[in-house]
Specification:
six-stranded parallel barrel; globular
Length: 91
């Protein structure tokens, strides 16, 4: 279940990610959902402000330090892993 807390402090993050606009350059294409119950996999993120509810804390930064390249998509059918990534199943 991907309940994601975005942090602006890199030391608080357990994942450092970069945002790309190009689906072909992403490791993971993400669809944002409106309720926690809809965030049933890595590619469907529910954004939370509550640290206790978060399954992952993510910092979005420069590509040189990132472990994950993310592309946000508008259609849930476009969401999913684009690569065989070490974070698969861990967000």
């Amino acid at each position: 279940m991907a309940k994601v807390l975005q942090t602006f402090n890199i030391s608080e993050a357990n994942i450092i990610a970069t945002i790309t606009q190009e689906k072909g350059k992403a490791d993971l294409c993400v669809f944002i959902v409106s309720s926690p119950g809809m965030a049933w996999s890595d590619e469907r993120w529910y954004l939370t402000d509550n640290e206790a509810d978060a399954s992952s804390t993510i910092y979005f930064g420069q590509s040189g330090r990132s472990a994950l390249k993310v592309c946000f998509v508008k259609n849930p059918a476009d969401a999913g892993w684009q690569t065989n990534h070490k974070l698969k199943g861990k967000i």
